[in-house]
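ok here's the first one, seq then struct tokens
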Amino acid sequence: MASELYNIIEGVSREKGIDPRIVVSAVEDAIVVATRKYYKTQENLRAVLDKDSGKINAYAVKAIVEAPEQVEDPNLQVTVEQARKLDPSAEAGGELLIPKVTEGILGRIAAQLAKQVIFQKVREAERDTVYNEYIGHVNEVVNATVKRIEGPDVILDIGKAEARMGRKEQSRLESFAVGERIRVVIVRVEKAVKGPGVIASRSAPELVQHLFQSEVPEIYDGTVVIRAIAREAGERTKIAVLSKDKDVDAVGACVGMKGMRVQSIIRELRGEKIDIIEYHEDPVTFAEKALQPAKVSRVTIVDAAEKHLEVVVDDTQLSLAIGKKGQNVRLAAKLLGWKIDIKSEEEKRQEVEQQMSALVTQTVTPLEIVTGLGEGLVEKLKAAGVNTVESLADMTPEQLEAIEGIGPKTVEKISIAVNNYFASLDGGEAVAAAEPEGTEEAATEAALSLESATEGSVEADVLVSEAEPPETAAEEGAGLSSEESATEEAATEEAPEDKQS
């Protein structure tokens, strides 16, 4: 029959969920520590618990050697001859157990020390048991009960162990009461920590995924697949879904009739906003969907290797695309796994203008190319830091006169030389521009000359008709014919003049 001590050990083992042998070993180690402290010895001690009587016996253990010269440490070794005085059956190579009296001599300090050792061993065994139990359930959702609240942390009862949920693992919209039942995600299991070794969370994206699997049958049976989730707990969640059946609308299945399915999840998350987006393999299309409710003008892949996108939106949509404190674009970037740069139409236009202006190279003309500037004058200008014709043309007469060796007459000479240089450039450009259009301009000038000659002759006819009285119809007809011939002669005479000009 088991003793009362052993029955207590079994009760503690069941409560803590650990093996009774671990508790027995802890008790034996505690007696060894207390005995060593009492006897102040360096001997190898061992304690044994008698299951039936409940008595714990302590022994000094020594190795048995053949000859006295083999004894290196008398506290740890003994000869066969000495061992047989205590145990006639002792043989070389065995162990000799020398009893140590413990009953009635271990005081309060020794008992306190033994208690500490037992508690330490039990806690270590409990942590090992919790670790082995829950290490395979990381990222899984479990039901928990709020056990107590320690400052910002919430201690949860998850069955065989306690879990700790820190402030960072909670949603800012939630508050908890002792005894409340909630669903949490096991995010990690820590072995060498004080207190509970399981860390739980209500802010992990896996919680949203589990809730959708529970509420949406199409997700549970695999017809609709959750491809990505980006979440900021207590604020907003974006979830990308894809349907494997062309007849099933992935977004509609998650929303449910009149939004019943998604509203149930929102209530569980205490009012957190949820955006359900259809997944696309094309990052451009996916980015347009992920940035909803903002309307995107265009999306450009800047660097596919670095996963970098540039999104341009209308000026009125920029704040909506960025979101409150950058939340919308931040969640979209997490959902895609790409870096996203958002710009308005005006910002993009200014950027393009800057790039175009940067491409225009500034002309640099040396001073030596300008005729009319002597070598001495060029050297004086270069000594003053004026090395190009463009910089010389931008200078005022006062700035030129400030240069040593240059007076008003020299300034006038420089002005004439620079003006002649630019005039020659303008004249060359005008000639070059006029060459391909010479034929058209000549034809146009000839037509204009002919028209002016005709108008002049008509005006002359009007004056003649006013000065002379009208004759008969025959005479008017003759007059008109003569006027027409005169007009033709005038046009014939004017045309050669235009050609000569």
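and now the second one, same deal
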Amino acid sequence: MTALDEIKIGGLGSSRKRVEDDRFIRGRGNYTDDITLPGMLHMEILRSPLAHARIKSIDTSKAWQIPGVRLVLTGEMAAQRNLAWMPTLSYDTQAVLATDKVRFQGQEIACVVADDPYIAKDGCEAIDVEYEPLPPIVNPAQALAPDAPLIRDDKEGQTDNVCYQWEVGDKEGTDRAFAQADVVSRLKLHYPRSHPSPIENCGSIANFDPATQKLTVYMTTQAPHIIRAAVALVAELPEHMIRIISPDIGGGFGNKVPVYPGYVCSILCSILLGKPVKWIEDKSGNLISTGFARDMYFDGELALRKDGRILAARFHADTDQGAFFSDAQPSKFKIGLVHSAFACYDIPVGHITARGAYTNKAPGGVAYRCSFRVTEAMYFQERMIAAAAADLGLDPAEFRRVNLVRDEQFPYRTPFGFLTDSGQYHKCLQIGLDAIGYDQFLKDKEDAAKRGRRLGIGISTMTEPLGAGNSREYDILGIKMFDSAELRVHPTGKAILRTGAKTQGQGHETTWAQIVAHELGIPAADVLVEEGDTDTAPFGMGTYASRSTPVAGAAVAMVSRKIRAKARKLAAHLLEVSEEDVEWELGRFYVRSAPNRGVTIQECAMAAYGNMPDGMEPGLENNAYYDPPNLTWPFACYIATVEVDPETGVWDVLRFVAVDDCGVRINPMIVEGQIMGGLTEAYAMSNMQFITFDEEGNCVGSNYMDYLLPTAWETPGFELHEVVTPCPHHPIGAKGVGECAAVGGPAAFVNAVLDALSDTGVRNIDMPLLPDRVWEAINTRADISGAPPVRTD
């Protein structure tokens, strides 16, 4: 009897094939829209065509006359049940169905329940709504103007369009540092509004059983337990009589964290009718009304010495929140974790101010593949670093070498209060520079310029805070942001694991079993992973903001260790020695003085049910709730080379090198897939995904003719490299990786294009860098703003 080979049993480091894919690639996934319940009805939503208008009247009489229509629900009817408005995850309120006025194009006005979705849609078209148009607001500058119309006149005491103000840092110390600076570098930019656009739209099937008074909801949510708590508050139902089931999810990316009016409407309709009600939104509805991301305006400065050292950083950020402040983010941080900016740089002092504005857009601010506004922070950071290097006349790689935190400085306290615990930033940068052939490319660029070609290279180095977060500082709706795992080992040594997370493409069913294999020596193939059902899963906060491995994965490791601790006692009993004489190696316990005498974890499992020592409780199962002591801090270096066609503004990626340090990698194949997926989204954000608003508040780009998602044809190739610096406080040393590439990637592409235009004096082109914007920048030698409103003539 010897220790097991961890790779062979599918433990840490094994590129085990994703067990989920066995059903997905065969079309056997079980999504919300695949579910049919007896007597099920169908719901469609009527949305506003206007961005800002007072509702004068709603006539539903013609809809009621259509055969097959069972219910027409308006805001006035919902108000009778106190459900016209609902709380958001940011302690604001949001209209379920508009009663007084509409505040964005696509807002929910009414819904129709019918025998099939086509009749329901006909019913919506038969509803006659009379509007009184009001002036629309489509950016924070308009919202904050002295004469701006008040958007949230429903809120008592609200006299302007400001929804929050926030600041962090040392203002006086920062001002002193700027007074001593040799050079002050300044940059203004807009990170445009973008949409996560999961392949599966949002939807729900609400089934209220009048006999048992229990509500069961199948829905597309990344956070089932949080949704259950929210539904209990909104619908005034006891929480133990609510069951949320999140089946297979066709992508989330943060879009499926909020509570949407469609969910609430389907629940209310089911309660009123006593029948199951299904709502599946269409793609246009998803693109114009569900949670947007980004839409942040930066104005920042760096105080610099001539030798390249950064003395201080300060910036102001205005966020466009849309009509309702509904971000799903920690309560304490109104602008998410934007103060993680510059965390990888050794900057002594800094100061940030931020302000949120209501506008006539769908609610924004969701954590689209990022940890609560970190994507915006890192984009501004790396654009600011590139601008500062140019202002000093320094090579951007050397400028980073001067200012990146050194290995011996960890743990490092950032100027905004975070504690980064580990990393090898300089090593990652050097690996990236060597892989891209940095020095040779600079020579090639110079030679190409002589022939009229425009080549550019862009670097992005960043560390991202993941795994929010410790209960001292992090909560949503007052619930601390821990996570959970429950593990049961059956008599034969097979196991079932349930967690409070919810996979939507991350591969939990594969990687969670690998953690159990690492901790207990049970082959990963013998571990079944279940998530997404609030009646069976332990309470958890769900999956978003790259919390899976840092928090839920840690809970899996900790519950496995609890199981191993009990198994050790069983092993001592079976081996007839004291527990202190028992040693562990993967898959078996053995006697310290006689290594050949041992028992397997499977033998211990059988003993737990049939041969336990006197006084021991039978069974081999436990649970763990993991409250992380700190955030985890993966690091990445991304480098892109491009060529820009000066005649058309079209730019092509020549090469892209990614160096990621995400700590210990559970499944290298899945990690690489996450990185490539994130880089694809980064490329799309920088190059082609364009969704914005005109002066009337119309959503421009709410279709896939305009909001271009990259296919394999457009997506460039990526060269991946790795560095491993284990996280010192995570049970298995992992840091998380699901968002890093989408967070740090965009700046590498944009910096590369602007480097190709360095002789023009252009400092900024707002994303996406569409060919017409690049062409205009070349020919006007001026910065190009992409902020709304846009012209549509």
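notes on #2: The mean pLDDT is 96. DSSP finds 19 helices and 34 strands in the chain.
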